[in-house]
Amino acid sequence: MQNIDWSSLGFRYMKTRSHIRYTWRDGAWNKGELVTDDTFNISIAASALHYGQAAFEGLKVFKCKDGKVRAFRPQANAERMHRTALRTCMAPVEVPMFMDALKRVVNDNLDYIPPYGTGGSLYIRPLLIGSGPQIGVAPADEYTFFIMVMPVGPYYKGGLKPVSAAIYDDYDRAAPKGVGHVKVAGNYAASLYAHETAKHAGFPVELYLDAKSHKFVEEFATSNFFGIKPDGTYVTPDSPSVLPSVTNNTLKQLAVDLGMAVETRPIPFEELETFSEIGACGTAVVVTPVSDITRGDKVIKLPTGDKCGPYSEKLYHAVQDIQYGVTPDTHNWCVEL
Ligand SMILES: Cc1ncc(COP(=O)(O)O)c(C=O)c1O
Q1: Looking at ligand 1, which atom is closest to the CA of residue 187?
Q2: Which of 48, 281, 309, 327 has the CB geometry, 3.0–4.6 Å to 129, for a possible disulfide?
Q3: How many angstroms does the Cα of residue 283 sit away from the middle of ligand 1?
Q4: Threshold 0.70, pTM exceeds
Q5: Are 255 and 262 in contact (CB under 8 A)?
Q6: In the predicted structure, residue 139 carries a pLDDT above the cut 80
């Protein structure tokens, strides 16, 4: 067991024993190897650096109550990375190779997984880049696939704490027929300025409207949007430029399991005032409750105020209990490694 203070872990980079690295050349991936050095030599003309051929994923591995180590829905991330690769003309990683890479790198870093009960997990960060030199705009002729792993702590140490959100009409995240629906690195470069602006103004998260009309709710910079109606209906946007979140997909199913109605449809901005709870959802935090949303002079205050609403809380615990093996995994989401 590593000498790590599990209680002080945040969501920060930490070098672990190894990462796994594969190279694609002449139409095929090599067998991959575990690498201890966390630096990487690359051509200064690599297509990832100039033309943004870079995709990543984020998922978690848990030390469960029964002592076993399980990944939560890794195939969903593998499939999303495959879609991202195709959309950005990169060599795709097939699901079996992704799963094998995950098993190899996690098993080499077992002692970095936070013990059950600490609320932590092993964060898994797959990365696919065009590593071959390319000076004209074109896909690279060489790709590198990595999976790095690092322990992260629970986001909420004293219960789920709601945050303030802002909407900026001056910045968009993703065009309707662009790449918002895949996990391309450039999407995050595109949102950083608005994100920093929001942060400096006291808003931990920013909410984007659809780029075409600014009439419909899309998602937050790194998480999906959901709202709960007073009757307990779970509503989440239907948009071609929103990233299909594994967490949102999970919450929708758990909401059904809990007897809630689920609607995936366009959400006009005006409808925000009718929700009794609003949350941001994603792998890192599962659910971040929202207390208020500011757009220019308008402030929408959620009735939940500085408390997490009951439906969001219930859904949050339902996900975590499956992830840590506390309740049965009836949907076969967890994969033992
Ligand atoms: C833009 C965006 N939306 C939503 C999510 C949440 O997705 P997931 O639940 O798969 O982590 C993420 C994080 O990956 C994201 O970057």
Answers
A1: 1
A2: 48
A3: 7
A4: yes
A5: yes
A6: yes
